[in-house]
Amino acid sequence: MGSLANIQSFWLIAILVATLNGAVPLVLAAMGGILSERSGIVNIALEGMILTGAFFGAWCGQSSAAVGLVAAIASGAVLGLLHALLTQKLRMNHVVSGLGINMLAAGVTRYLSLVYFPGGLECKAIRPIFFLTAAAVLPVAVVLLLKRTRFGLRLRATGENPESARMAGVRVLPVRVAAVTLSGIFAALGGAYLTLGEEHTFSRDMSAGKGYIALAAVIFGKWNPPGAAVAALLFGLFYAVQSQMQIHNLNLHIGGVELTNPALLDTLPYFVTLIALVSVVGKSAPPAALGQEDTDAS
């Protein structure tokens, strides 16, 4: 009985640790997604921002983890600024812009990794507790930013009714640019966690859909930081479950189907994400001006 209790305790601890590890990049990117979308800009570019942050964090972190972290943050800021300018200055559809940035990030990181690091690369490490602390603090910080600061008030106003905000003296374009730039920084920080905090190396397409899942957490959490953080933890739990089932080679068959097949288990977080999104369709109201460009941007 004692050994069984020890095994169960070890299993629960392993699941908890894996859940937190899986949730960290999702929480960081989701907080960025909230800032962007509460300002009125749809941001499916979170995926590319995570991937770019991971790559530049590893590339510039070969000699110094601090340099890698700064480079990752800078790369996310650049992509955030690009997304803001494409959607607000050039009037590009927000989803098209986001997809374009995701494809750009995937192509550029793949090319650079093949040309400059065909044998792979290793980077210095930052203790995961740094990123875990950031993921724990950031939802509270975003709540305070949105509700207790002048910038947060203006950001929410631009996301709900930019024309009224403009009549009240708010310059919509700078607020949205700042919000999406911060969005890129937070998402890239999640990418830096993957390389500097977890893997200590870069692999192509290592973001593996985490940006899309983070955006799903934003929607599932109804554009509310604590809600999005809880949703990210839920998705992180399913990452943990599928990884632990593969590690321990558990076998479960129902109706002749091997439910614990590694290929099937890898789809579990995405399947759960889809179910979560379906469950909130029609039950949550996004910012009223979400997806609209600034008509006075020029």
Quick synopsis:
The protein is mainly α. Helices cover 72% and strands 1% of the residues. The chain has a single domain, classed as ABC transporter involved in vitamin B12 uptake, BtuC.
Task: Give a description of the structure.
There is one protein chain. The protein has 298 residues and is mostly helical. The protein has a single domain (21-280), classed as Orthogonal Bundle (ABC transporter involved in vitamin B12 uptake, BtuC). It is built from 12 helices and 2 strands, in the order H-H-H-H-H-H-H-H-H-H-E-E-H-H. The protein has helices at residues 2-38, 46-60, 65-88, 94-116, 128-148, 150-160, 162-167, 172-199, 210-220, 225-247, 262-265, 268-280; strands spanning 253-254, 257-258. It is globular, with a radius of gyration of 20 Å. The mean pLDDT is 86.
Main features:
single chain, 298 residues, mainly alpha, ABC transporter involved in vitamin B12 uptake, BtuC, two-stranded antiparallel ribbon, 12 helices, globular
What is the CATH topology descriptor? Answer: ABC transporter involved in vitamin B12 uptake, BtuC
Largest sheet: 2 strands, antiparallel
Approximate helicity band: over 70%
- Series of secondary-structure elements, N-terminal to C-terminal: HHHHHHHHHHEEHH
- The Cα radius of gyration reads 20 Å
Mean pLDDT: 86
Structural class: mainly alpha
Termini separation: 72 Å
The domain tally reads: 1
Name of the level-1 CATH class: Mainly Alpha
Cross-sheet strand order for the largest sheet: 1-2
The total strand number stands at 2
Q: Globular, elongated, flat, extended or rod-shaped: what is the shape?
A: globular
Relevant CATH superfamily:
ABC transporter involved in vitamin B12 uptake, BtuC
User: What would CATH call the architecture?
Assistant: Orthogonal Bundle
- Count of helical segments? 12
Low-pLDDT residue spans? none
Strand composition percent: under 5%
